[in-house]
Write a structure and sequence with these properties.
Blueprint: H1 2-9, H2 16-40, H3 45-56, H4 70-82, H5 89-101, H6 105-116, E1 119-122, E2 126-129
Antiparallel strand pairs: 1-2
Helix pairs in contact: 3-4, 3-5, 5-6
Length: 138
Amino acid sequence: MHGFAKAAEFGVDVPKDMVQRGWAYLAQHFREEYAKRMLKEDCCWEFLTFLNYTASCYPDPSWMGNALTAQERRDILDHSFKHWKQHSPYLKSRLALTLKRMGRPRDASLVFAGAMDFARSTQDEGTFWAPQDSSWLW
């Protein structure tokens, strides 16, 4: 689904009906496997963050064919934001984009700043995300 969203962004002719069928499957999978676990076990934020980010990449909600409701997407966003400090820098950046796209720019700025906390820049290597200095203590 992410690949289709990126292709559409770059002007590739993507079959909308295929995308809608894919989202119908993902929405069913979310409801059957993740919705209850998200609340009951307080888990799965990595998958749900990327799912919601991918949904936010489409030009408009019609691409999802009403697979996930606006309330479900807000619930997923709240759950992901609750765990934003536990995300990798990659997922933090995706969460920040999703927050911005869903009308929460202040939260987006906070999460993006958190992603940039571990960024390092050198003249030879440019900007990169280095392992934490004490990562060997795991």
